[in-house]
């Protein structure tokens, strides 16, 4: 056995009780009662341990009877004892439940969509989409941003023709910031990318948020960034850069509706950026992302969540339709308290007729 509890005799100091064959019936009864009680605890602990190790180490994929007791116990503990999927799905659900939820609502949705797409679950046919406000899609914007490994200030690159998602970095420049010493941001003008004066990656840039262009910081410093929720062009969350004399828009127009998760349609210039207020390329960027550097992916900005309504769009599989209740339950766990949340889904039988339902807070009646 893995666990053994001490007996009455082992827990008692010598001399207090008579454990010989001449002990009184009363003493014998007390000793027997205590040993039986601890034996019951011992058996329960070992039963629990044995069940857990069997569940964790054995393959139950061929089991056609009811779900193993320990899995059912864990489902009940997590408030989903009513789930009636297969064993593999139950294990995947418990794994998802055991993970911590991201502090960002957008990332929490992304994590859920990734889970629903996993082969074991497969309740949706493709990445979900998120729409903020009055059906304004969370769109994909390229960051016009390049890096140099030069030992001294490099020359400003000349303008180049912009080709959506497939433009090349100028000679001696790169879209990767791993060992960068300088960077240059660009803006669009007449179909060209106009590059601005290079700036050292050791300089710290302050990033702020604004609801519109009138909210751009009045006294910025060269290199500062500002995410603008709506700049009047239809863009959602454009990034503006102060070049020392004026604010320049350094993300492309949101003409291409992008997916919330996954890479862009083809390799592009898009890169990820942390959501903290201070951004410095002297800090190594994360290894994930289309080009491993600093840039902008509109939905990750926390200012986007100022919208009062969030709409989710999912294409359900047949199994997803059968488990719609579980999908709603999972969404209720990550729904922002102050935002109305709607799920718009299609089914295999009605792929062109979405159904819309509102997701209420967990405490709602």
What does this structure look like?
It is built from 7 helices and 15 strands. By secondary structure, the chain is of the alpha+beta class. It folds into 3 domains: 8-57; 101-133 and 307-365, GMP Synthetase, Chain A, domain 3 (2-Layer Sandwich), CATH 3.30.300; 139-256 and 263-297, no CATH class. Helix 3 packs parallel to helix 4 and helix 5 packs antiparallel against helix 7. The two termini are 48 Å apart.
Sheet/helix structural class: alpha+beta
Describe the global form.
elongated
Counting DSSP H or I runs of 4 or more residues, the number of helices is 7
Rg calc: 30 Å
Please state how the strands of the largest beta sheet are arranged side by side. Answer: 2-1-13-14-15
Low-confidence stretches: 134-139, 255-307
- The count of β-strands is 15
Averaged pLDDT: 76
Number of domains: 3
Determine the oligomeric state from the structure: single chain
In N-to-C order, the SSE pattern is HHHHHEEEEEEEEEEEEEHHEE
SSE topology sketch:
Elements: H1 8-11, H2 25-57, H3 69-77, H4 87-98, H5 105-117, E1 129-132, E2 136-137, E3 145-148, E4 160-161, E5 182-189, E6 192-195, E7 199-200, E8 205-210, E9 225-228, E10 238-242, E11 247-249, E12 278-279, E13 309-315, H6 318-322, H7 324-334, E14 340-347, E15 350-359
Helix pairs in contact: 3-4, 5-7
